Amino acid sequence: MSDSVTDIFSPEEVKRQIMALPDKWILRFDGLIAGYGKKQVLNGVSLEVASGEIVALIGHNGAGKSTLLKAVFGLIPIWHGQIFYDGAALASPKPRELLRSGIAYVPQGNRVFTDLTVQENLEMGGTTLPTKKAISEGMERVFALFPALKERLKQRAGTLSGGEKQMLALGNALILAPKLLLLDEPSLGLAPPMVSQAFGRIQQISRDSGMTVVIVEQKVREVLKIANRVYVLRTGQISFTGAADALNDEAKLREVYL
Ligand SMILES: Nc1ncnc2c1ncn2[C@@H]1O[C@H](COP(=O)(O)OP(=O)(O)OP(=O)(O)O)[C@@H](O)[C@H]1O
Ligand SMILES: [Mg+2]
Q1: In order of start, what are the domains of the chain with their CATH numbers?
Q2: pLDDT, tens digit, for every residue of 200-212?
Q3: Residue nearest to atom 25 of ligand 1 (CA)
C-alpha cells in the first residue's frame, strides 16, 4: 500500500485526526446522523475538506451521497452530530444564508428552470448577489467558461440539450463565485467527451480561484483524475478515504469500491 493512503475504518480514528487539525478545514462533518422520516441514512459520517481542494465522494446507488450534500445545504435536518463550515457550526442552515456565506449547491439531475430563458436562469442563480453589476460580472465569468450559454441567452432552458442544461446548472452556481461548491453527479446525462471537458473546467476554476469542490460522482475513474482526495460512502458510513492517486491502481479501486 502506498504511504499516501490512509485506510480509516474507525469513526473514533477519523474524529481524532480531524480534531487534530481544526484550522485547515473549510468543511467538516463530525459524526453526522440524518435521514428521512424514520429512515436513518447517514450512520455517523465524519469527514473533512481542506480549503481549495477537490474531494470526490463515491459510492453505490443509495449509499447516501446525495443525502450528505443535502445535509450541508440545510435541505434535511441533522439528527445528531455536527457540520462545520469555515470554522463555525451550521446549526440549522438555511439555503439562502448558505449561498450568502459562499456555499453553492448543484443538485442531482440538471436542475434548471425550464420555463425561463438562459439569462433569466442565471439572474435567478445570482439573486443573492448584492448588485446588478455583480450579477452581470458573474454572468461574464460564466460565459468565459461556457461560451455556448452566451449564444443561447434568450432560449428557454427547457429546450437546451442535456449538456447545455448541465452547463447552465453549473453556471447558476458559479455566478456566485462560491468558496465551496457542492456538486451532485454533474456528469449525469453528459456524453463521455463532455464529461472530461466539464470536469476539466471545474478543476480549472478551482485552481484559478481557490474554490473548494465536493463532487459526488458515479463516473469514478473520471472524477479521480481531478480529485485530490476521495471518500467512499457505503450504507451511510465512510468505508475508505485516501489520496485520489491511490485509486489509480485498478486492484485498489476494486477493493475499496466494488
Ligand atoms: N426524499 C427521500 N425520502 C425517503 N428516502 C429517501 C429520500 N431520498 C433518498 N432516500 C433514501 O435514502 C437512501 C440514500 O439515498 P441517496 O439519494 O442519498 O443515495 P445516493 O448515494 O445519492 O444514490 P444515487 O447514486 O442513486 O444517487 C436511499 O435508500 C434512498 O432510497
Ligand atoms: Mg444521489
Answers
A1: 5-116+180-257 (3.40.50.300)
A2: 989 999 999 999 9
A3: 61
